[in-house]
Amino acid sequence: MIRANTSTCACTGSRKAAGCGYLTILSSALVLVLIFFAKQIESFQPTTRNDGRRASTTTTTTTSSTSSQLFSSPDKIAHVTFVSGSAETGYGQTSPEPNPTWAQVCNQLALRLPHFAGTTSDGSSDIIQTRSIPATELNAEDLKGQDVVVALGVCTSEEETRLGEAIETTSDALVAVLADPTCAAATLSRQKAGKYVRSSPLADLLAALIPWSATATGRRVLSKTDTLLARKSSEDYIFAVLFAIHGLGIATIDAVKSDLSPSWEKGPIRNAKEFAKMAECCQPQIIAAMSDPQTKRAIDLLDEVDLRDQVGSYRVIVSNETPELEEFTLCILQQNDCFGCDAPILDRPKVPLLKEWRGKSLDFDAAKQILMGHLDHPDASDCSQRKDWSWRIVVGANPAYDAFPLQHQIFYPSGKGKSMWYDPVFCVETLDDERIWCKRHYRVTPRRHWSADEEGAEKGPTPGAWTLNTLDNGMVSEEKWTTVDAADDLSWAVLHYSGAARRAGQSYVGALLCTPDGQWPADCRSGEGLERIRAAFRSCDLEFWELFGASTEKSYMWADTYTSWKKNNPPPLDRIGDISITAWRKKELEKAFAEKQKA
User: Fold this and answer.
1) SS3 for 463?
2) 460-467, long-range: CB within 8 Å, 24+ apart, which pairs?
3) Which of 241, 195, 242 is nearest to 214 (CA)?
4) DSSP annotation of 548
5) Hey, what's the torsion of the CAs at 513, 365, 449, 501, to 10 degrees?
6) What is residue 387's three-state secondary structure?
7) For strand 391-396 and strand 360-361, is the pairing parallel, antiparallel, or unpaired?
8) pLDDT tens digits along 287-308
9) Which tens digit of pLDDT belongs to each residue from 467-520?
10) pTM listed for this prediction
């Protein structure tokens, strides 16, 4: 897994602060205060929740996230029903098993969604409770007690009629109705988010005229979910529902509560405070960022996406990496935490750890050899193919970070203790349709796996469980990696990760199939070998059709179009070595600034 910092989304607000400094900030603050008082007129009107309770009129300026928290408490439970239709899904086109049914997709989303929200404070219940129902089996009363309905592939007359009757029966209680583009027109017209109903021209007019209203909030939430549901990935679908649950105040979701963009939901006073803090702490970095054309372009592009949209924001970042952007991010987020973000590392699913390898209990030496894979290194396994890399990625599960072509993993020992280094090298297709190589540097340290506590193991780290840290584009990312399975001859390995860029407000998960050449292992295209790899991904709560990059017969990450380019543009596979992450980033920044001066 590779990751560039998405934290530069803080730049969205900085554009207002950069050119004129404090005077611009103060002027903006005055305007925002006027808006704040206008907003109170709306808040004095008693608002009734869909469940009949009166909503609080507390202003959004005291919340730690968005105005969604007005109506939610930490232990509020969200109820979500996925309704599957018969349209073709179009899911998993570059996966080992493309085009699952919508029923399969809904069942899988219902399984995975609760893991992104955690449990109540006493641990007695998931914060999100889910169901999956085929549209043809839906009864009129089935949606009672639900907060969110997600319709996927509902397209026939019978499916639309059954869903329509169920929505009509409980429409006043439903907070949101979402639908993907494969649904028919009647279902798409039923979409709603809070007080905003898609089919209502009046709602559109009100949202446009009063952007701080609950109706406008609903329209913005629905717009975000539309963008995510237009993509064919479980990660995007899951985050679409999370945004709706949190943004509409159904429940507080830590994984999406941090918002780096100025918004009506955050409230005028908080927006002004954030602008002022950026200008006070980082004015030189802001001015430098806005003075550089490529960095300003990145800021403008980030301003057009929801900055918690990891797929959209990540592509902007990797297409526009500049030293000015990195210094800006380091100051705004990492050093000064201008937005108060703190995204969690998700601890579910509880991914099992490989316990035995080559007929022996996995120890630290063996665990390191699995990561080192086929690297030409004295400490590598005797079945290493002695290459310039450890592994190449065949498929991955995260559309933001695993779907890049030509991914090389380079794991090698540190000169100190049991720790290691990890230098991923990968190809990026930029927004300008150029191909470039990107490289990162991670510290890898052993960590304790959850199973060690359950088994009463001795204190200390567990072989095969790792913590990876990096400073990337000015932002610290931390990831928990687990060695899930590996062939005895190292013909393949499956690795899982769960991580967060805490100050950027982003949590993420994924899993990888790695081989020496980036192709699906020949002896695992069917039979026991295939089922063993399937079982490894299923232990991570992932199905084959959720993966990106290859079928069992054909690779997309290592297609001829990429490998031909690679021949003329060899990857930078030299090891960064025993140099701290901070020192390496400083060295890279100095080199980048020097190259700009020469140009």
Assistant:
1) coil
2) 461/418, 462/353, 463/362, 463/363, 463/364, 463/366, 463/367, 464/353, 464/354, 464/362, 464/367, 464/370, 465/353, 466/371, 466/420
3) 195
4) B
5) -60
6) strand
7) unpaired
8) 999 999 999 998 888 777 765 6
9) 999 998 888 999 999 999 999 999 999 999 999 999 989 999 999 999 999 999
10) 0.87
